[in-house]
Give the backbone structure.
Amino acid sequence: MSIDLQPEDAGKAEPAVELPRLNRSLRPSAKAPVRIVHLGLGAFHRSHQAWYTHQAGDAADWGIAAFTGRRPDAALALAEQDGLYTVVERADAGDSFTVVSSIVEAVDGADVQRLAELLAAPATAVVTLTITEAAYRLGADGQLDRKAHDVVADLALLASGDGQPATPLGRLVLALAARRAAGAGPLAVVCCDNLSNNGTVAHNAVTGMAGAWDADLADWIDANISFVSTSVDRITPRTTEADIAAVQAACGYRDNSPVVAEPFSNWVLSGEFPAGRPQWEDAGAVFVADIEPYENRKLWLLNGAHSLLAYAGQLRGHATVAQALADPLCLRAVESFWDEAEANLSGTEGTADLQIPEYRRALLARFSNARIAHHLAQIAMDGSTKLRMRAVPVLQAERAAGRSGAAAALMIAAWMDYSAAAAELQDPLASQVAEANHLSGTDRIRALLALVDPNLAGDAAVVALVEDLCGTFGERAVSP
Ligand code: CS2
């Protein structure tokens, strides 16, 4: 079911009577059987992978069982509506509303037994992941950080044989062990987090965890599980009360879990699906042999600009992406970073096939969509991990080419200033960042840089460059 609405109509019709809740009577057809298991049930999964699956020509064969991460809330809310929810596509010209029905089971992530049961079923062919960049617990060497405290705790639980792992990696490894035991055969794990080479990252993280528990399991995973790399794209801010009210007014039912997204969406995938997959190409997904150029284009141009705006913009007093982009100082920083990134992007036929000028123009339009309130504070989270993918490769490539990389370095400098100014920093390395911020001068810069990339921290010229750029967007941070 889809409805279109102009902006001036939105929110007009105040419901006079209690409206029905979105419920199974609105499900367009019978529930599809579970063949996809998702870890990380959140707004992005619902606006992206679940939306593609809903639109696939063979959607009737592909139901998703979606598991939450740390908290059960999203699963409980969705389960009340039989897994149904509304995607609000929010364009400058107005909203359109679609009820998505591909999620057939919404489960609390702590229910590891259900996860193991589903992975042990031969019908399950695909596992998709949106567990956040930081959850892969990658060390600076690209391998699983086996000393991370939650990894240590989960390994102890797995070894004891009677405990429920708490990390997505631990849960997935336990469920893959159940699949091996059941002889249910190969499947594909599709990483949908914003990491370069994300299939390899997922492979290293999963086999790293499995291998530290049971070397045979790691070998079985290597032989049977295909790790698919993908580049995912759709700007999806957090749902607000106003969004819930807009759906109620426009659609005539109450939906406790609508998701608002821009009309644009993109999914590029590369890898094998040994047990099959939905026809995601019907919804515009693209399958390629070499994903790296697409991945870098998206990670550097979109996500890189996002991080730059998140730190620079908040230091300048802005709250949303659209507001920050309207600030000439922030816009200039983004354009300079894009110039550096573009100089290091190349596709199969140079940059022609990547259509960088068009991509940049489209990004400016997407970021300026003022009807999408994309909060900088949301993007600013987990900076130490995100900068490794978004700023470091461009800085390294620029320096290798004999140039300064000042625009990429500025993103890192803005993060440092922000990390000292923020009331509360959400980051997997928050305590180390706080410690580093107690140092002063060059020592502080070096210590912060080491958390992002130890090699860069060992390069005195880069440390000096970053130190020089601190303070560009506001007060230079001083040690307490
Ligand atoms: C953002 C992404 O929060 C962030 O770090 O850069 O979530 C971004 O909105 C998506 O990747 C867009 O596809």
